[in-house]
Amino acid sequence: MRNIIFKLLNSKKIRLIVDFAGILIGAVIAAFAIEEFLVPCTILDGGVVGIGIMINNLTRLPLSILTVVFNIPFLIVGSRKMGKMFIVKSAFGMAMFSVFLELFSKLKNATNEYLLAVSFGGVLLGIGVGLVIRFGGCLDGTETVAILLNKRYKFPVGKIVLVFNIFIFIVAGFLFGFDRSMYSLLTYFITSKVLDIVENGMEQTKAAMIITNDSKQISKEIYERLGRTVTIMEGEGLVSGKKVVLYCVLTRFEIHELRDIIKSIDASAFIAISDVSEIIGTHMKSKVSLDKVEKKQ
């Protein structure tokens, strides 16, 4: 019976259903936080949603439509470089987020008190966005661009998003007053901290150590799908005997894809994921022909 349950939980279809359910729940929570706490007090979220809230306040165009329209270009750009499943999940999350923004906009505001809006709105938004990212998607197109810049120029994803958001908050200060800008910045920091808890320290670069019997296939898939090179080491377990240990550095957004790769090839593999506080030196991230690599070896 246990084996049957284990197989069901590890089947691709079940995991995909769980992923989309998690993204849906996260999108609903995030939309509720935006419409019921932040929008009534003109407190901005970062990224595309923050720009949408500004335009919504100036023109009264629906935030749900603005969010979809602004995210489409980012999805088109991301579809050329990111994995197909990441784009599908992100598109689903953004669509559900937009739908529930529209639904929640018709409800009575949860509060008009700024401190309550910042506190509860920030916490709920962090939970919602954290769930979406944990299950392999994202709600904001600026994060997709940040990942692409990280892959090409090695800029940290978190810092790119932070710089973009600070620019938005400064513009908001000129439009709505700098008290709103400061409330928005405080909300952003609360959201980031809660998001860290939900995603288990995802703001930092991650290092993955994988102990497996299918090292060649796993390392090839990591390289093909994530564009990350893998260091292959030999090891020996006290009980299990000789093993191959794979080591690679990746971003928080790639952890979910890494899990999928390993589970689909070697469900018995042991994976240890840790935070990396600093990276010194360079490692190959651009894709080259694997045939050339194998010839060199």
Provide key terms for this protein.
297 residues; alpha+beta; Alpha-Beta Plaits; 4-stranded antiparallel β-sheet; 12 helices; 4 strands; 11% strand; elongated
Your description of this structure?
With 297 residues, the chain is of the alpha+beta class. The chain folds into two domains: 2-199, no CATH class; 205-296, 2-Layer Sandwich (Alpha-Beta Plaits). 66% of the residues lie in helices and 11% in strands. The chain has helices at residues 2-10, 12-38, 47-59, 63-81, 84-104, 114-134, 141-153, 157-176, 178-199, 215-226, 255-265, 290-296, and strands at 205-212, 231-237, 241-250, 270-276. The chain has a four-stranded antiparallel beta sheet with strand order 2-3-1-4, with no helix packed on it. The mean pLDDT is 81.
Give the N-to-C terminal Cα separation.
45 Å
The stretches of 5 or more residues where confidence is low (pLDDT under 50) are none
The averaged pLDDT comes out at 81
The ordered string of helix (H) and strand (E) elements is: HHHHHHHHHEHEEHEH
Given the helix and strand composition, which structural class is it?
Answer: alpha+beta
Query: Main beta sheet, described?
Result: 4 strands, antiparallel
Q: Tell me the overall shape.
A: elongated
Radius of gyration computed on alpha carbons? 21 Å
Beta-strand content: 5-15%
Number of domains: 2
Count of helical regions: 12
Q: What is the share of helical residues?
A: 55-70%
Q: Please list the strands of the largest sheet in the order they lie side by side.
A: 2-3-1-4
Strand elements, count: 4
